[in-house]
Amino acid sequence: MSKPVVLVAEELSPATVEALGPDFEVRHVDGTNREELLAALADVDAVLVRSATKMDADAIAAARRLKVIARAGVGLDNVDVQSATRAGVMVVNAPTANITSAAELTVGLLLAAARNIAAADQALKGGEWERSRYAGVELLDKTVGILGLGRIGALVAERLKGFGMRIVAHDPYASPARAGQLGVRLVTLDELLSESDFITVHLPKTPETLGLVGEEALSKVKPTVRIVNTARGGIVDEAALARAVAEGRVAGAGLDVFAREPTTASPLFALNSVVVTPHLGASTHEAQEKAGIAVARSVRQALGGELVPDAVNVASGLIAEEVRPGIPLVEKLGRIFTAVAGAVPALLDVEVRGEITAHGVDVWKLAALKGLFTDVVEDPVTYVNAPVFAEQRGCVVRLVTDPHSGDFRSVTTLRGTLTDGTVVSVSGTLTGPRRVEKLVGVGGYDLEVPLSDHMLVFEYSDRPGIIGTVGRILGDADVNIGGMQVSRQDDRAIGVLSVDSAVPAALAVELSQAIEAKSFSVVDLQD
C-alpha cells in the first residue's frame, strides 16, 4: 500500500520533516516556479508552504488528490481558502507559533523608541559622537497603554511588568478577572490615550479599528508619548502619526507593520525619533521552527482522519454532509452577535432546532465561537483556539437541540447573556435548494433577510420618517441600499439594511443620532 504524498514547496526546518514521521512520502519542489509547482501537485495528498507559494484556485484544481494545505505561519494571503473549501481541501496554519516573537519585538521597538537606539546607531556609524542629542527616557514608573489584551497583548503586559511599568489596557472584550490576573487596569480608550507614556497596539484589523490611532486619537495623547504597532498596518494612521511626530505632539514611534506592504517610502522614514522594521514580528528561527512543526502535526492529523486543531476551514469527513453547509452560516451569526451585542457574553446558548438535529451538530458550537471572536481578538481564530478565547473571557457555551423548529425546516439561534444580565439573540437559517443564508431573527423580532457583506441593524421608536431619514443620510454619503426589512413590536421597531459598501463609524454615529436609535449596529461580514 502506497504512502500518502506530502509536498514541501518551500524551505522548511529539518524538524518539520522529522515531525511528519516515516508514514509519508515527502517530496520537494520550488513553489515559486509555477510550472514545476502545478506539475508536482498532480498526485499529492498534502502540501506545505510558507508565504512565497501561491495556492490559488488554479493550483488547487491541479491537485486532484489534495486533502490538506498547510501554511507554516499565521497569514493566509497566499492561500485561496474559499476555493480550498469548495474543493473539500482543509487549510491549516500555525496561529500561535509567532506570539512570543511578536511580543518580544514589541518590547524591542518600545525600548528602541524610548532610547533613540536606531538614530544613535546611524549617527555613530556616520562618524558623529553626540550623546546629548540622543538622550532618552526610562520605562520605570511610566504608564504603558495596551490596545487589545489578547494573547500577544497579554504577553507584552507580562514582560513590561518586569520593567516596573504601570499597565493599563483598553479592550471591550477582555474580562476584568483576566486583566486582574495580569496586573492590568482596564480603562476607556480616552483614558488610555490621555494617561499613557507609551501606547502599543495589539488589535485585529476591522472596519472599527482601521485608523483608530488617527488625528482624533493623537490629539488626546501626551506630547511625550511613544507609539508602537506590531499588530496590523492601517490601525495607526501613518500620515497622521508622521505629522504628530514632526510637530512635536508625539515624541516617537516604533512600527513593524504598514497599511501597504512592502513599502520603502513613508513620511515616517525621515523622522529620527521613529524606528521601523519590515514586518519582522514572526521572523525568528524559533517561530519558524514552531510553525513548521505545528503544521506538520496538523497534516498527520488530517490525513489520519482526526480532528485538526488549527483548521481555518472545515472539510473533515467526521462532519455529516448535511451539517457542513450550516457551518459558515453559524460562523456569520457569531459575527453578527458580536456586532449587535458589542460584548462577549458570559453564557452563549447555541440553539439548533429542526430536521438538522438528526445529525451531530457539535461543530456548530465551535463555528459560533469562531465567529464570535473573529472581530474581537488580534490573533487568527480557528476551531481549536476559539474555545480558549472563550475560556479566557469567561464565556460558557452550551448546545441546545430540539427537533421542532416552527416556521423553518431548521433554524439556529445564538442566545447570549451579557455580564450585566442583558440577553441578546440572533437567528439564521438556510432556505431553498441553493441554501441561501438568511437572518431570521434579532432580539425577538422576526425577520427574513439574506445575509450580505455589509449590514445595518437598528432598533428605534416606531414612527413615520425613520427609514426615509436613514435612506437620505446614506444617499448623501454615497452608500447604496441593496435591501431592507422592518419588523415591529408594539411601539418599537427594528430595521435591517443590506448596503453595498462598508459604513464608517462616523456615519453610523450620525445615523444613530438622527433617528434617536435605541441601538445601532454595523455588521461587516467581508473577509
From TrEMBL:
Keyword Zinc recorded: no
Every copy of the ACT domain together lies at 455-527
Q: What is its EC number?
A: 1.1.1.95
Keywords from UniProt, A to Z, are: Amino-acid biosynthesis, NAD, Oxidoreductase, Serine biosynthesis
Q: Which reaction does it catalyse?
A: (R)-2-hydroxyglutarate + NAD(+) = 2-oxoglutarate + NADH + H(+); (2R)-3-phosphoglycerate + NAD(+) = 3-phosphooxypyruvate + NADH + H(+)
Pathway per the UniProt entry: Amino-acid biosynthesis; L-serine biosynthesis; L-serine from 3-phospho-D-glycerate: step 1/3
Look up keyword Nucleotide-binding and say if it applies.
no
Q: Which family does it belong to?
A: Belongs to the D-isomer specific 2-hydroxyacid dehydrogenase family.
Q: Which NCBIfam families is this protein grouped with?
A: PGDH
What is the annotated role of this protein in its UniProt record?
Answer: Catalyzes the reversible oxidation of 3-phospho-D-glycerate to 3-phosphonooxypyruvate, the first step of the phosphorylated L-serine biosynthesis pathway. Also catalyzes the reversible oxidation of 2-hydroxyglutarate to 2-oxoglutarate.
Q: What is this protein's name?
A: D-3-phosphoglycerate dehydrogenase
What gene name is listed for this protein? serA_2
